[in-house]
């Protein structure tokens, strides 16, 4: 491709980081540490403590999928944890069923409750979601308390020691003796933790994980790429719930006692603290966070230890503050507040005889500290300081070869007739008619321009077409599969019928690489289920390989091949616009909507853009182009429609439209002083 | 039938408390699209503070002092938990920070006033008054009148005073209000102050008929969420209707099913309303611009 400005500016691939290698080392260290711990430390107290940390870590790893990846706040995870615990405990209480089926029941029942909660609740976001999940957690607690015949009510359920491996069934003694038997449960929990890490890793690196991140970065673009935001939020929540259930069932057998008030609001907030403090979107973060929340009450119980810790914190705070002032860092006054607070913590602990009563206050202060001074958690902080720890983007450091056609034209079955038909489309916002009964037809294989002054209804029309707005009246029909009505369908359904779009203000998934952005567009090519992702089946690997090659060829077509591993937010503006078009092309559209693609581009960039749009049309993809650069519109469009105040005022070839007096009037106003004298005005 | 009416009558009193707290949620949500997840603690602190003052000042003189206390408390919450989060545009930030402050307040209150529930002396006689066959506690009538009066005062303040008009302007369009010279940050603080003030007032209203303690607000605040959602977080007096619906639903459940389940209908209602009509029964659907 002979693009001048668009040609990759000799940007070499970013140095392949060794993050993946580090991850492997971390995993090996973790396994060794978990296996060796009971051999070194024989105290059952500490083994139990580590068991609880591992169990909480399982839940927190799952919570991270919801909080870290999809960016939703759930205050219902303690409730889910309780359901898992009670699923296992009630099975034993009523049917004397042991730990293994109890774990399965914990996962299954909790996942089912997760669906029950997620299906209505995930229609809302933000504070609403927080309230709904909080209400859910409270209801669960009430039901556990009240359904005495099932749950044994406030008395709780006591369980015997878990029988992990039953050697009596095969008439044998355990080969590792009585002492070893006590560790069976510990090793079971360790195995569950490692398995959880593996599953979460696979899920977040699969198309599912990409969808989770995409819907957090830009829900609207995600929907318009055919990835239903709602559906993937539900997936994320249910996976998370299943892990919470596993953790709950393990917890029941670990504590050997379940009671309704153990799964309340404070536990939920503790989990959220662990996710944020450890560090979101990582595997090590939840482990660190879990260790902190489990050990904190133990540390607080020992006033001497607390004073030593407070001393250390105060010393560290003084050093950080002093360094900031010596180096004259611009934020030195801003960090004064936390420094002073950290220092004041020491005299406070010296004055108190016991901080156990103030446990929740300490815990609340930690949340405030994390929210404002450590928003990315401990792992996020370290990653910021030490580049080697930064996570590898999917496929980073692997060689990427382009493969497959960049453009696959889906011609639809319009033949020579209209590909897209708007009939009497009315869009009303209160009293305002943004579209006042518009008729419009777009012929296949053409570039159809849509122009009009600001506020004339162009973008509204695009939003109606892509399902972001539901039209008040009228119909939109696309000639695929024998004519499909688009109005009333969801954006993701419309996208999957073959309508792709870009946005007036760029809507990329900015924390994802260029390649990953295009891969989200290619989401429709993946047939694998969530189980394929978890098991890493051959189908899943083949699909990933093919999609990756295809994505590279699309990036090459757009002239972005060299920038494939660059995060979208780090691309220059012009490249971002091109990447957005590339992502839309990945949908294999019949119809591509470009909403002001040339806005903010330099002249050479515009020339390249025009060439690319032509190639897209020549490949057989129909294009609707909204643009204010008249030379672009006039040079490209086979046909142009002009909107003004929600009405179509003119349509025809580019030149004819340009001469139309109604169009001139809409753009420049009516010549009042010579009104009537001009012959054109008479028929206007 | 009398039993039914009797239940409705006591439901109304509870419902008005929910309405008053929910009204507080609306105030801050209107100005800043945030709300205080620690509102229940503001209510409990108001009641406990009132309980401490009452022996010295008597019930009636204590009320204005509690209002001042609530007003100051709201400003503290806004400064510590909400303003920094608005600055970094973090939704997660303010939700977690207001929860954290709530937990801190509750814990401090437990350490100051103890963990046991206390009895709040009733300013009115405990004997019920007979009205058309229904027995009503004078305190219940005071709750209804007090809650209505307070909402009325805030409404009048919003409509008539210049500060109130600034609150309304900020609620309608925060950017435009800022461009018109309104200090919107201060208005958000004001809305938090008024919000916490209503909660503290609701605390001293409800305290004589329930038990007073650091945890008294948690469930009330959660159910007030349900009321705010039913009424619509953005619609003025829908909360009164929402509060009445919920209060009556609860007393009926408590009587006909089991007192253990009396918190359930509100929470179920919350789930149902949000899943069917997220803007609330009285809210208007807002279309987001792309």
UniProtKB/TrEMBL annotation, chain A:
Keyword ATP-binding among UniProt keywords: yes
Membrane-spanning intervals of the chain: 21-40, 46-67, 74-93, 99-119, 126-144, 185-204, 234-253, 306-326, 333-352, 358-375
GO annotation, cellular component aspect: plasma membrane
Membrane topology label: Multi-pass membrane protein
Domain ABC transporter: 420-670
PROSITE patterns given in the database record: ABC_TRANSPORTER_2 (PS50893)
UniProt name for this protein: Branched-chain amino acid transport system permease protein
Organism: Methylobacterium brachiatum
From TrEMBL, chain B:
Keywords: Amino-acid transport, Cell membrane, Membrane, Transmembrane, Transmembrane helix, Transport
Signal peptide start and end residues: none
Localization, UniProt: Cell membrane
Membrane-spanning residues: 59-82, 94-114, 134-157, 187-207, 264-287
Keyword Transmembrane attributed: yes
Major place of residence: membrane
Bilayer disposition of the protein: Multi-pass membrane protein
InterPro entries linked to this entry: ABC_transp_permease, BCAA_transport_permease
Pfam families: BPD_transp_2
One of the GO BP terms on file: amino acid transport
One annotated Gene Ontology cellular component of this protein: plasma membrane
Entry's Gene Ontology molecular function annotations: transmembrane transporter activity
Family: Belongs to the binding-protein-dependent transport system permease family. LivHM subfamily.
Protein name: Branched-chain amino acid ABC transporter permease
Organism: Methylobacterium brachiatum
Lineage, broadest ranks: Bacteria, Pseudomonadati, Pseudomonadota, Alphaproteobacteria, Hyphomicrobiales
